[in-house]
Amino acid sequence: MKPKSGGGSSTEKALKILLAFTLHNREMGTLTLSQKLDIHKSTVSRLLHILTDYGFLQQNPSTKKYRLGRSAAKLGESVKTSLSSSLVNIASPHISKLSAEMGESIALEVLSGTRVYLVHHVEGQNHIRFSFKQGEEVPLHVAAGAKTILAFSDPAFVSRCLKTRLHRYTDKTITSRKAFFSELETIRKRGVGFDRGERYEDAYAIAAPIFSHERVPVAAVIMAGPAFRMTGSFLEAAEEPLKRTAAAISSQLYY
């Protein structure tokens, strides 16, 4: 039987070994990796020892199998921290493009702990437009972006976010928890959330979620404007461009 040699340099082979663990980080031994990656067993064994020495893998002393180690975890945390701090820079050109395309004000709302803040915005080109307040904490049960983030979040997390009474801002504000959770279900099915005069009677908004590499919602893209311009047909037409923008930002967060 012809021995397996695998193609590429030692560096490429080492990277293939690391990537073999990235989906589920299940323990694997030398033979399994050799067969899975089509790399000679002796080469796999040598590279496993090097990767273990540098902390990218760790060996279970009982099973003698390997899994990702401390150095790999540190790299992951560094990427996560970098993406979080760079979210505004990543989203900014997409938001500006969407605003130019739709002519309306566009904003980025970001989840921080159990709160959501408006961290970036671009004002629309129309004479009468909606102005966002940069740095503002938005009410979770009325803001389109916050509702959209919650709709795709873990139910236990949503419950922690909504410990206090749902304050009424206008006649359209949802103050019933049962009705609010029903709306979250609708948002999950549709992929976008709305604020139809729930905070300000004369202002409407629509939002789409942004997901991280961990496949959880971390932010939302929001389009807002005066109610007389945000008609049903306009909001329907805005759904796909908004989803497309959110997806483009999510992809740069490795979603």
What key attributes describe this structure?
Arc Repressor Mutant, subunit A; Beta-Lactamase; 255 residues; alpha+beta
User: Tell me, what is the CATH class of the largest domain?
Assistant: Alpha Beta
Radius of gyration equals 24 Å
What is the CATH topology of the largest domain?
Answer: Beta-Lactamase
Compressed to H and E, one letter per element, the order equals HHHEEHHEEHHHEEEH
Name the structural class. alpha+beta
Distance between the termini: 42 Å
Into which percent range does the helicity of residues fall?
40-55%
What does the average pLDDT come to? 88
How much of the sequence lies in strands comes to 15-25%
Number of E-type strands: 7
Described by strand count, sense and barrel closure, the largest sheet is:
5 strands, antiparallel
Helix tally? 9
The number of distinct structural domains comes to 2
Describe this structure in words.
By secondary structure, the protein is an alpha+beta fold. The chain folds into two domains: 10-77, Winged helix-like DNA-binding domain superfamily/Winged helix DNA-binding domain (Arc Repressor Mutant, subunit A, Orthogonal Bundle), CATH 1.10.10; 86-252, 2-Layer Sandwich (Beta-Lactamase). Helices cover 44% and strands 18% of the residues. It is built from nine helices and seven strands. The protein has a five-stranded antiparallel sheet, sandwiched between helices. Strands 1-2 form a two-stranded antiparallel ribbon. Helix 5 (87-102) packs antiparallel against helix 9 (232-252).
